[in-house]
Amino acid sequence: MTIRVMSSRDLLSLNKFTIDDGHPHIELDKAICVQCVQKPCLLVCPAELYTRDENGGVFLDTIGCLECGTCRILCPNGGIIHWEYPRGKFGVQYHKG
Ligand code: SF4
Ligand code: SF4
Q1: Bridge partners for 83 per DSSP
Q2: 58 φ, ψ to 5°?
């Protein structure tokens, strides 16, 4: 038997995501995010979905969201103005944990 060791990134790439067009399950207030100095969301998202934008704020692509809620808990300034689990049949489907 061969045991294949897979990295976290490889495992995450096996997940499937069903997009709920027009109904993002996380929304940001860009004006608040521009003022946020530490921007912990850039560091804590396990799927690395938060990136800096050209205006000094952050951009979030919800495709790939693992629905862990970490960003919601650790956002210090209320920039996440909407966070909910995707509606039924949408969002992440885990394949290998
Ligand atoms: S931590 Fe919250 S307020 Fe700060 S940049 Fe990220 S989402 Fe915006
Ligand atoms: S819920 Fe988790 S995976 Fe989704 S954007 Fe927030 S930190 Fe990233």
Answers
A1: 26
A2: -130, 155
Question: Please, which residues bridge with residue 60 across strands?
Answer: 50
Please identify, by atom number, the ligand 2 atom nearest to the C-alpha of residue 69: 1
For the question of whether the overall pTM of this predicted structure is more than 0.85, the answer is: yes
The Cα 77–Cα 88 span in angstroms is 29
3 Cα–ligand 2 center, Å: 30
Ligand 2 centroid to residue 60 C-alpha, Å = 9
Q: How many CB atoms lie within 10 A of CB 61?
A: 12
Q: What is the pLDDT of residues 41-52, one digit of tens each?
A: 999 999 999 999
Q: Are 57 and 33 in contact (CB under 8 A)?
A: yes
Q: Taking a C-beta distance cutoff of 8 angstroms, is the pair 80, 26 a contact?
A: yes
